[in-house]
Design goal:
This is Secreted protein. This protein is of the alpha+beta class. It has helices spanning 3-21, 98-103, 131-136, 187-193; strands spanning 39-41, 57-59, 62-64, 70-80, 83-88, 93-97, 114-119, 125-130, 155-165, 170-174, 180-185, 201-206, 211-216. It has a domain at 66-153: OB fold (Dihydrolipoamide Acetyltransferase, E2P) (Beta Barrel), CATH 2.40.50.140. The strands form two sheets. A six-stranded mixed β-sheet has the order 1-6-5-4-7-8. Strands 9-10-11-13-12 form a five-stranded mixed β-barrel. The chain starts with a helix and ends with a strand.
C-alpha cells in the first residue's frame, strides 16, 4: 500500500470512528459541558445548529447565521510549539494551532493579544477573530495579525446534497431554485457529511471565506 492510499485509509477510518461514537453528526451530535479551568485543545470547526433567522435572506436560499454560535473572548497567554494558549474570560484555557489562526486571516498573534473564539454547540472552535474585528465588523483580512476576517459575513444555505468528496474537501448542493453550488469544507464539516446520502436536504453554515464550517438537518 503506497503512502497516498494509507493516508486516505487513515482519514476515512478516523471519520468512521468519529461518526460511530458521537451520535448523529448531521444533527449536531451531543452537547458537551466544559468544566471551569479545563484545558482544551481545539481546531476551528463549525457545528452551529438552528434555523436561519427569518427575513434576513440576502441571496436565494441563503441567510445570516451568526446568532447560532456562542462567542468567548480571552487573552493570549503564550505561543509555543506551533500552539496558541488563550485564557478566556470564562476561566478556561483554549488551545489552537498557529496554522489554524493563519487560515482564518490572523498572522503574528502574540501574548497579550485579545481574541474572540466562536464556539459551536459541541463547544468546539468554529472560527477565530481578533476582538477588535468582532466589534468593528471589519471585512478585510490582514496578514499582520491586526485584523482578520469579520464574523458578520457568516451565512447559511439550504439545499439537497448532490455530491460530497472527503478527500477533495468539497461538497455540492442544489438549492430550491435549482442552482448547484459547490464549497470547500473545513474538517468538522467533513465528519458531519460522512455517510449522508445524495438527495438529503442539508443546511450548510458558510464562513466569511466561503468555506463550509458546519452542516446539519433543516429545523
Amino acid at each position: 500500500m503506497n503512502r497516498k492510499m494509507l493516508y486516505a485509509t487513515l482519514i476515512l477510518l478516523s471519520l468512521t470512528v468519529r461518526t460511530a461514537y458521537t451520535g448523529d453528526l448531521l444533527d449536531g451530535g451531543p452537547m458537551i459541558d466544559t468544566p471551569a479551568n479545563e484545558e482544551m485543545i481545539d481546531t476551528p470547526a463549525d457545528r452551529s445548529k438552528g434555523k436561519p433567522p427569518a427575513g434576513q435572506s440576502d441571496e436565494a436560499g441563503e441567510s445570516a447565521t451568526d446568532e447560532f454560535h456562542r462567542r468567548v473572548t480571552g487573552e493570549i497567554d503564550r505561543v509555543e510549539d506551533g500552539m496558541i494558549s488563550l485564557k478566556t474570560e470564562e476561566g478556561t484555557v483554549r488551545k489552537f494551532g498557529v496554522k489554524d489562526a493563519k487560515k482564518e486571516g490572523l498572522k503574528g498573534l502574540k501574548p497579550g493579544d485579545r481574541v474572540t473564539l466562536e464556539l459551536d454547540e459541541g463547544n468546539e472552535i468554529a472560527d477565530i477573530h481578533k476582538e477588535a474585528q468582532v466589534a468593528e465588523g471589519n471585512q478585510n483580512g490582514a496578514d499582520d495579525g491586526k485584523g482578520g476576517f469579520s464574523p458578520e459575513k457568516h451565512r447559511s444555505i439550504t439545499g439537497t446534497l448532490e455530491s460530497f468528496n472527503a478527500m477533495e474537501r468539497k461538497v455540492t448542493i442544489k438549492t430550491a431554485e435549482g442552482q448547484s453550488k459547490s464549497f470547500q469544507l473545513k474538517n468538522p464539516a467533513i465528519s458531519k457529511l460522512t455517510g449522508v446520502m445524495p438527495g438529503t436536504e442539508v443546511v450548510l453554515e458558510i464562513d466569511e471565506q466561503n468555506r463550509v464550517m458546519d452542516a446539519h438537518k433543516p429545523s
